[in-house]
Amino acid sequence: MFRNIVAQPNFSVYLMKKKEVTIYDLAKELNYSPSTISRALNNHKSIGKKTIKKIQKTAEEFNYRPNALAASLRNNTSRTIGITIPKINHPFQASLITGIEKTARKAGYNVIITQSDDKYKNEVDNVKALYDARVGGLIVSLGMETRDTSHFDQYVKQNIPIVFVDRVPENFNSYRVIIDNHAAGYRATKHLIEQGCKRIAHFAGAQHVNVYNLRKKGYVDALIDSGLQVDEELIMDMKTLSFEEGKKATEKLLKLDNPPDGIFSAIDTAAVSAILYAKEKGVKIPEELAIIGFNDDPISRIVEPTLSTVSHPAQKMGEISTKRILEHSTRKLDAAVSEITMLDTEIIIRNSSKRK
Amino acid sequence: MFRNIVAQPNFSVYLMKKKEVTIYDLAKELNYSPSTISRALNNHKSIGKKTIKKIQKTAEEFNYRPNALAASLRNNTSRTIGITIPKINHPFQASLITGIEKTARKAGYNVIITQSDDKYKNEVDNVKALYDARVGGLIVSLGMETRDTSHFDQYVKQNIPIVFVDRVPENFNSYRVIIDNHAAGYRATKHLIEQGCKRIAHFAGAQHVNVYNLRKKGYVDALIDSGLQVDEELIMDMKTLSFEEGKKATEKLLKLDNPPDGIFSAIDTAAVSAILYAKEKGVKIPEELAIIGFNDDPISRIVEPTLSTVSHPAQKMGEISTKRILEHSTRKLDAAVSEITMLDTEIIIRNSSKRK
DNA sequence: ATAATAAATGCAATCGATTGTTAGCTCAAA
DNA sequence: TTTGAGCTAACAATCGATTGCATTTATTAT
Fold first, then answer.
1. Does domain A23-68 sit in CATH 2.60.120.330?
2. Is A299's CB within 8 Å of B304's CB?
3. Which SMART domains match (chains A, B) (predicted)?
């Protein structure tokens, strides 16, 4: 499987960690008290300008690096934000993290990341581990299995802000950063109708998850408002909206006596899968079957025909979530605040649905 | 842009953090000393069985959660791994992180993530910030701009293990987890030759970055070994191997008097871009132009024709990197060890290069 | 020159968990 | 009854930075 090459040049002495430089060392060196060193390094106003200069210069010479653990312990607040999301290597979530990390770092915060893999137990464990690390705030996108949210209670008790993003709980006072899934689902469906679709199928996700539930509601409402029938036969329930599930669903749909002429998929992956399978079966897209997805994943631009979709401002959501946490300490709110930020989505019309 | 809805139910009392439960509280409650509580919670052998039971039960009842900051401070080692990579939202790197996080969490470690965005300054800042957080180990994939590695010296001095992964420095004693880029480049090129290509172009990345340098060397060596000419005109130097760069390069190549009949791209993105552009220009793939990429990104399976590529065991690399760090404390090595783990790659032959 | 004010610095406790050393206790064998 | 093995558990120092309060020094006004 792989080769290993080991070389070990020198022993013993190096095994001991060298004593690190602390403010006490600097204090001794410069004949100041540790308090003065500490204040000088933090540019405290009660310390003289030249003193600050001198101390900071020496600190640099000595390669002094503050111990954030000690500071956090003393202050009882750490400049760390915890994240719990289902999967890091999904385009939407990776972008979400990117936005969080960038914003946090600018503010001098570190980000600890955990992934639940959509398992409830993992989520609970992660939330505990982040608490143990005494994060200053928590950003969460719920796992598929999560129905109970009591694992977050301890944060509220300690007034540690929680921001739920995208996949959020129904009943939990906290910050929320979401998109208008209902409106997005409505518009995506409406778009297909405008392109002349009369029988539109829907690839639906797990219905206890807010985003999938609302996208479906939007779909249903758009049909009703347009005077089209809602046909349960055309609503394909899926667990993960994966490539495989998308294929199976498309297969089923195409076999119907009265197959659909449009598909709104709650996730791009399944939509792309539908395109590929339908093409394989000789169905013309978009003429015979118009398709629209959700997320604007990279594959949606590459598939042929390119996939129409709903874009989800992932990085922006991460950025706003982080800002909520950074602001929290400034504002006089407790963690049980219920503040919802709803971002706009954008329908991106590409070739998989453009008939005119 | 977005709507905000704020509701604030209750004030004052909740603003103060409630005092957290500590081992001292448990000690008082149970009439034990804090030392006993601490040892009991850690299942120390010198504490009686029933005592441990009783203490752990009470801890649970009181919702006690250990303060990892305090423990780390005292022990001078934190169960935290720091990561510095260029970009989180790139498929390869997202998978790398996934592998790291999973392995670390199984061992009870947290993962702090930072991204350099391929900027040297960011990388330096991040490496410092992670040091300040007193991580127990560091996993790094170097940014494009990095040529000097002195920002890692402090880790070596403190015997904090560093694992470089994928994009690694030339001269720095540490752990390294890499793939055999030379062999991969060689085999990819050889594959095109076997398919009958006589004039093979190469999309090359920045040559001071080990992975791109070696892929190119592999390409050149394969040509030479097969008695083909190395034509500098066919080697396209690119900064980021992006979609746009791929397109421009393909444009240039197709305009040559004697255009290539094969392309080996050091990254999938540029390869996909080449496919799309060449198709648009009426060039038949793979008949007139065979293409192979590198990374096995999701888009490589979706593009038409599907892209042949070299798969990079990203999660596995993350897993192994993490294990190196976890093992480090166990083994009697200092951080200046030089241990290289080289993983195999796999050539995946899809339609963009299969002529026979 | 002197009192009064402002500026600069130091003292010592604190955050929560860990651990080497010491001390108390139980039980059994002699 | 005595003694020591074997358990249990406590004391107190430690990790490094922070900060309210006290104290010293410098500066200004009168």
1. no
2. no
3. HTH_LACI (SM00354)
